[in-house]
Amino acid sequence: MKSSGSLAVPEAGARTGVKISRAKVEVKMEKPQASEEWIEGMAVAMSMLANSKRMAILYYLLEKDLSVSDLVRLSGGSFPAISQQLKLLTLTGILERRREGRNIYYSLVDKNVHSILDLLRTFEPRRGNRIGESAL
After folding, report:
1. Containing H/E element for 129?
2. Looking at the 3D structure of the chain, how many domains does it have?
3. Alpha-carbon span 92 to 84, nearest angstrom
4. Is residue 56 part of a domain?
5. Full pLDDT tens readout for the chain, 136 residues
6. Is 61 exposed, middle or buried (0-12, 13-18, 19+ CB in 10 A)?
7. 54 falls within a domain
8. Domain that residue 92 falls in
9. Which end of the chain is more exposed for a tag (fewer CB within 10 A), N or C?
10. Rounded Cα gap, residues 105 and 64, in angstroms
11. What's the CATH code of the domain at 53?
12. CA 108 → CA 86, 114, 124, distances in Å?
């Protein structure tokens, strides 16, 4: 990019979302290719990640499939509380369950959930800040 005063001008042939001509500068804004149904589904899926108990369950399941008893032991929660969270995660399609004898095992349905959780592991929220407080 060449600098023209305070405006950075792309080199000839550079790919940008900005069309530059002598007459005007035109910014091309493309509408995301997502249906309202997809957006609503993603909002529901993301809301499942907004609960610390469900988030812990998902992180435990990153390593391997686990039974309800395993998840109760690992999380320190009660059987009814963990079962309720597992039901929500299953109904939204994030988890699937299978029965082996008397045990029910849960697993992540989509490998993309692994990627999302791995990405979230890299995020470091600011400590001590609450919604509405200044980050400064």
Report:
1. none
2. 1
3. 13
4. yes
5. 444 444 444 444 444 454 544 555 454 555 567 788 888 888 887 888 888 899 999 999 998 999 999 999 999 999 999 999 999 999 888 899 999 999 999 999 877 888 888 888 888 776 665 555 554 4
6. buried
7. yes
8. 36-122
9. C
10. 10
11. 1.10.10.10
12. 11, 8, 24
